[in-house]
Amino acid sequence: MTGRLTIYGDRISGNCLKVKWVARHAGVNFDWIDVSVAMGETQTDEFRQLNPFGQAPVVVFPDGRSLAQSNAIIFAIADMSSSRLIPLDGFARAEMLAWMFWEQYSHEPAIAVRRYRKAILRRTDAELDPALLEKGERALTHLEQTFRGPFLLGEEASLADVAIVAYTRVADEGGFDLASRPRTRAWISRVERAFDIPETEGRA
What we know:
Layout: E1 5-9, H1 14-25, E2 30-34, H2 45-50, E3 58-60, E4 66-68, H3 70-80, H4 90-120, H5 130-146, H6 159-168, H7 182-194
Parallel strand pairs: 1-2
Antiparallel strand pairs: 1-3, 3-4
Helix pairs in contact: 1-3, 1-6, 4-5, 4-6
């Protein structure tokens, strides 16, 4: 990929940071523009010209085209670069996508939402929907029981790992239990090393 990306992202959002990590891992040049979800900066008319849904992240590619939705963005960046984050084997590639769909459907809606409300908005446990904790714990249990190698697809890191680690690594900020999940904690450390993610980056 030639030229520079422009990434509009919130520095405490896992969905935004996963884009930064993949671009950096892929050796892609980019400019990061901070936008604060909590301050309403994704709801301005200017931002909605980039993404009518008013969500971050959004990436503008060197040719001027823009793209929203974090997992679509990281797939595009990896696909347009020489990154090895997308498996060549068709079935393995489908497995990677299955994990990424699971993250957005069964993982992120509970873990990211509860973490945002608890750690960013400072809501008390009594103010939070108990179903979020139950659903997030189920997702983390599934993750803990599913590992079959160093990474989700085996021996090599893929987009599935970076997509899911983004909020798993800060799940404790949402009141989720990582201490009793040693395989998950070891995997988090491996993914952070693979993508050169500082341990404190993205924490509230």
